[in-house]
Design a protein that fits this description.
By secondary structure, the chain is an alpha/beta fold. It has a single domain, classed as NAD(P)-binding Rossmann-like Domain (Rossmann fold), CATH 3.40.50. 38% of the residues lie in helices and 19% in strands.
Length: 295
C-alpha cells in the first residue's frame, strides 16, 4: 500500500502521515504548507488538479484530509470553504480515476446528522445537518457514493469523526482553547452544559488503519467516537484535575450556537464489530495533549 495524504500539513493530516510512516507504509504528503518530516512531500493546493495528479501517481490509496475545519473560518468564508470541500473532492475523485487509485478514506463528521436525528446517531440515519460544515461533508459523501456506483471495484470510506482532539491542534477548537486559558477565572464560553462526543487522535488513527484493512468495495460510512458524550464543564473539571490548574467560565452569549443540538454522540457499534475500541479516556487524552505543544 502506498498512501497519498492530502492536507498533510494540518492537524489530522500530519498525524495520519506520522502514524502510517511509523507503521512502514509508503506515504506521500500533499499540502500547501510544510508536511511532516520523514515522508515524500509534494507542495500544492487541493484545487490544483495537475499538481494533485502528479502527487497521486503511484499511490493506490488516498486519505483526503484537506479541509477548512474551524467553525468561525467556515462561517466567515462559506464560498471558499465550499470550494475546498466540494471542488476538492471532485478533483480527488477525478485524479483517482486517472491514476487507478482504488481506495479513498474521507474524514467526514458527526455533523452530517443534525438535531432532528435521535441519539445515538447511527450510520443508517437520514443525513439532515444543521450546520454548514455538515452540509459540505454530506455533499462530499454524495460524490463518493456516485463514484462507488460507477466504479464498483473501488472503496469509498466515509469516517464520520465526532470531536477529535490531541497534540498539535490549533486553539480554534475547544480543548486546546481550554488549555490555552488555564489559570483564568473568567474565560468566555457558551453554555457549559453542552455535551459532545470527544475522541483522542490515536484512537482515530487506529480506526483509519482498521478501515483501510477491512472495509469492502463500494461506499461505506463508519462513526468514529467514544460512543458517549461529555459536557464542556466536565472537560473543564477533568482538565483542572490532570493539570493541577484552575479555570472558570463566564457565559458569553456570542458563543451560543442555537442551530446546534444540546447533545451529540454517535453509535459506534459498527466499527466495534470490526474489532476497534476507543482506548484513551478523557483524562488520559488530556494529559497527553497537555504534555505536547499546541499550535
Amino acid at each position: 500500500m502506498k498512501v497519498l495524504v492530502t492536507g498533510a500539513g494540518g492537524f489530522l493530516g500530519g498525524h495520519v502521515c506520522a502514524y502510517f510512516r511509523r507503521a512502514g507504509v509508503g506515504i506521500v504528503g500533499y499540502s500547501r504548507g510544510e508536511a511532516p518530516e520523514g515522508i515524500d512531500a509534494v507542495r500544492g493546493d487541493i484545487l490544483d488538479p495537475e499538481a494533485l495528479l502528479g502527487a497521486m501517481r503511484g499511490c493506490d490509496t488516498v486519505v483526503h484530509c484537506a479541509a477548512v475545519t474551524p467553525y468561525a473560518k467556515i462561517m466567515a468564508e462559506p464560498d471558499a470553504a465550499a470550494e475546498i470541500y466540494i471542488r476538492g473532492m471532485r478533483s480527488v475523485l477525478s485524479c483517482m480515476e486517472k491514476t487507478g487509485a482504488k481506495t479513498l478514506l474521507f474524514p467526514s463528521s458527526g455533523k452530517v446528522y443534525g438535531k432532528k436525528t435521535p441519539l445515538p446517531y447511527r450510520e443508517d440515519a437520514p443525513l439532515q445537518p444543521d450546520v454548514y460544515m455538515g452540509f459540505l461533508k454530506v455533499e462530499c459523501e454524495k460524490r463518493m457514493r456516485e463514484y462507488a456506483a460507477a466504479h464498483p471495484e473501488c472503496r469509498m470510506i466515509a469516517a464520520r469523526i465526532f470531536n477529535i482532539y490531541g497534540p498539535g491542534q490549533k486553539a480554534d477548537f475547544l480543548i486546546p482553547k481550554l488549555i490555552a486559558h488555564l489559570g483564568e477565572r473568567d474565560m468566555p464560553m457558551g453554555p457549559p452544559e453542552t455535551r459532545r462526543d470527544y475522541i483522542y487522535i490515536d484512537d482515530v488513527l487506529r480506526a483509519f488503519a482498521l478501515l483501510l484493512e477491512r472495509a469492502e468495495n463500494g461506499f461505506c460510512a463508519y462513526n468514529i467516537g467514544s460512543g458517549g458524550s461529555v459536557s464542556i464543564d466536565e472537560i473543564r473539571k477533568t482538565l483542572c484535575g490532570v493539570s493541577g490548574g484552575e479555570l472558570a467560565f463566564r457565559i458569553d452569549s456570542g458563543q451560543i450556537r442555537s442551530e446546534e443540538p444540546d447533545e451529540e454522540y454517535g453509535d459506534v457499534a459498527k466499527i466495534r464489530a470490526l474489532g476497534w475500541r476507543n482506548e484513551t479516556s478523557l483524562a488520559e487524552g488530556l494529559k497527553k495533549t497537555l504534555n505536547c505543544p499546541q499550535k
